[in-house]
Queue: 3 jobs
Job 1
Amino acid sequence: MDFSGLIDNFGPLTVTGLAQGAIIALFALGYTLVYGVLRLINFAHSEVFLLGTYACLFAWGLFGLDQNSAAPAVGPMLLYMVVGLVAAIIVSGAAALTVEFVAYRPLRRRNAPPLAFLITAIGASLFISEVVGVATHRNQTGVPPIIQARPVFTIGDTTVTNLQILIVLLALVMMFALDRFINGSRLGRGVRAVAQNPDSAALMGVNKSRVIALVFLLGGLMAGIAAVMYDLKIGVTRYDAGFLLGIDAFTAAVLGGIGNLRGALLGGLLLGVLQNYAAGLFGSQWLHAASFVLLVVILLFRPTGLLGESLGRARA
C-alpha cells in the first residue's frame, strides 16, 4: 500500500474521481429509472451507452474530424459539442426504445417470469456489443480533440481543467433537470405512480406502456450525454467500452439506492472518487475491485443503499 502516493496526489485523485464519477452517475440513471418502474436490471443499458459513444464520433466525422485533427476554436467547438450531444442522445434514446419494444415488451405481454427478462437483457447486450465489434473489427477508435483540456484554476498542487468542470457541471444540471421532471411534471407523476403501484396507476388512467417507454427513453438520453463526456475524457472508444463502465454504473446505482435518482448521483460521485483513491493506494489494477468491496461493505450496513428511497416514494 502506497499511503504517501495517496496523500501526495490526494487533490488530483479527488478531482479526476469527481469527473469520472459524474459520467458514472449519468450512466447509472438508466439502471435506476428502469429498476424503479419495472424492478428489472436492464443489462443492455451498457450497449445503449456504447452506441452513443460511436454516434457522436460519426457526427464529428461528417465535419472531417478525426483523432489527428487540430483542436477547434471556441465557435466551432460549441457547434461540434451540440452536434455530438444531439447525435448521441438521438441514437442512445432510439436504441433504448428499440430494446424495450423488441426485447422486453413482448415478454411483458406474455407475463414472462423475471428470469426470462434477465436472460433477454444479457442476450440483447451481447448482441449489440458483438455487432459493433464486427463493424469496427474490434479496434479502438480515436476521438477528435473537440475540447482541449486546459487548466482553469489551481488549488495547492491540484489543477482543475475546463473539461473536468464541464463534465461535473453537466452531470449536475442533467440530474437536477431529471429530478424536477420526475417530481414536478405530469408525466413524472405518472412514472412515480407506476413505480409505486402499477395496478392502481392503471385504474387512475395512467398508461403503463407509455410510462415504461418513457423511462427507457430518459435513461437512453442520459446515457447519450454520458457517452459524449466519456469520449472527450478518455479519448478512445471500442466495442466493449460499455462493459466495465456499465458494471461501475450498476454498482453506483445500488450503492446510492437503486430506484433512487439522487442516490444514483451520490453513488456515482462517491464511487468515482473512492476508485481513484484505491488506485492511488493499491495501484490501478485494483480500481474496479475496490468498487465491489465498497459495495459489499455499504450493503452490509445499508441493504437498501445509502439513500434507500424508491422512485415510487420520491418526494418533490
Job 2
Amino acid sequence: MRRERTPAPLLVPATLAVAFLVLPLAGLLVRTPWTQLGTLLTAPGVGQALRLSLLSATLATAVSVVLGVPLAWVLARSRARGRAVLRALVTVPLVLPPVVGGVALFLVLGRQGIVGSWLAGTTGVTIPFTTAAVVIAETFVAMPFLVISVEGALRAADARYEDAAATLGADRWTTFRRVTLPLVAPGVAAGAVLCWARALGEFGATITFAGNFPGTTQTMPLAVYLALQRDPQAAIVLSLVLLLVSVATLLLLRDRWLGRGGAAG
C-alpha cells in the first residue's frame, strides 16, 4: 500500500499520545541515581524481592500453562454448551480490580474461607500470607493472558492437519500432543511470556491475599511501594529493574507483534 502523509488532525493527538506514554518512562531514566545503582541493587531486601518475584512468576506461569492450555482448547475446539459463559468467566480477571481478586481469593482460601476452612481443619494448612499465596494470586490474574493467546492460536491453526491425523487413526489425545501442540507452540510461548510478565508485575491481589513480608511474600512491586515511602531513590532503582524486564518481554515478542506489523507495512 502507498504510504501517505499523516493528516494534521491525526498527527497532533498521536504525538500527544506518544509523549504521554514515553515521558514518564524517560523521567524514570533521567531521575535514576546511576552513581548509586550498584549499592542500591545489592541491598539485601532488593535481592530477596527479586528472587521471590522471579520464582513466584515462573511457578505461576508453569501452573497457568498446565491448566490454561487445556482450557484454551476447550474454548476453541469443544462444542460443549455454555462456552460463551465460560469464556466470559475466564476473562473476568482481566477487568477485575486486582485488589478485588485478592479479596475473592481470601474469601475462598482464607482460614475462614469456603475452601480454606476445610483445608485448615483437615490438614492444618493455611494458604494466606505465604509464598504459595503469592503464586496463587499471580496465577489468578495472569492465566487469562495465556488462555486468550492460546485460544487465538488454536482458532487460527489449520484444522486440516488434525483431521488428517484423525483419518490415520490417531485418537484425540494423540492428535493434541503430536499435532495440535506443535502447531500452536508459538502462541503458547507468547502467552507464557505475557503471563510471566503480568505475574511479575502483580501488586493488588498479592498484597491483599499474601501480605507484604520480606523474604516470604514481598515481591518487586511491593518492594517498590514500600521503598517509595522510605527511600525514593531505591524505589526508582527497583522500578528501573521492572522496566528493563518489561522491555525484555517486548523484545521476546517482537517477532510475533512488531515483526508482523512491519511485514504488513
Job 3
Amino acid sequence: MKNLTALILSAVLILGYQATEAQSKRKRDKMYPAYSTPKPNKGDRFLQTQWWLGFRAGASLTEANPIRRFSGFSPINYDQELTEKTYSGFELPGGHAGIEITFYHRGFSFSLQPNYRRQRFSYYNEFTWDDAENGDNQLDLKYDQDHQLDYIEIPFFVKYDLTRGNLRPFIQIGGYYARLANANKAVEITGTDYASGDAGPFNTENVVIGAKDLFIKTSVGVAGGVGVSYDFWNMRLVLDATYRYGMNNITNAKNRYSKNELAGIGDALDDVEMRNISFGLGFLFPLRFINKQFDAN
C-alpha cells in the first residue's frame, strides 16, 4: 500500500512539474518571440542561393534602322528620295553561341552571357539610266547588298522568376556591349538592258568584299525579354526570347566614302542603329551542391 501511495505521489509530482514547465515556456514565448521561431535549416539557407554555369546558343533576326540617309549620287534633275535604300525587315537569319554565368538569390538572377554573335541585314538600290534623245535606250539596275557583322558581345541581365519549382517562367532586362570582330558585304547586281538591242534581264554573281572599315568598333544597347527554365536531373534547361535595341550609330562616318569599294556605283552607308530579336537555348549546371543534390528556391 505504501508503495502504491509513493508511486501515485511521484506521478502527481512529475505531471505537476511538466505543467509548470509548459506554462513557463508559454510565458517565455510571449515575452521573447524569437525564442519560439524555429531557426532556418542550414540546408534551406544554402539552397536560397546558387551559381550556374553552362553553354547557350541560338538564332536571331536583325533589322537596320536608318536614322540619317546618304547616297553616292547628287541628284540634279530628279528627286533625292529616288536614291534612298530600301531595307529588309527581320528577315536574314543570324546566330550566337557562348557561355552563361548566373548567380541566383531568392527569385532574382544576375546573369553574364558573353557570346560570339553574327548579325545580318540587307538593303537594295534601284537606278534607271535614260537616254534623253532616245527613250528606247534605257538601263535598269538593282543592287542587293547583304551585310554580315560578327561581334564579341558581353550582355548582362537581371532575371526574376515568376514561380518556384521545376518549371519557372521569368522576365529579364539588361544591356549589352559588343566589339566588332569582322564584317563583310555581298553585292548582287540584277537589271534589264533595253539599249543593247536584245532587251532582257541579267544578273551577276555575288561579289563579297571586306567591310570592317565601314563600321565602328563598338555597339551598345539595352535588352529585355521573357523565357522559361526547367530543372531536371542535375541541370537546368533555359529557353528565352530577347529583343535588343541598339542605341548608337554603327556606321563609320569617316570611312563612308573613302574606304568604300562600292562608292563608284553610288553606294554610301546610311547612319543606322540595330534592332535584333534573339531566340536562345541554354544548358546550365549548378556549382553548389548539398548531399549530392541541388535545388534553388
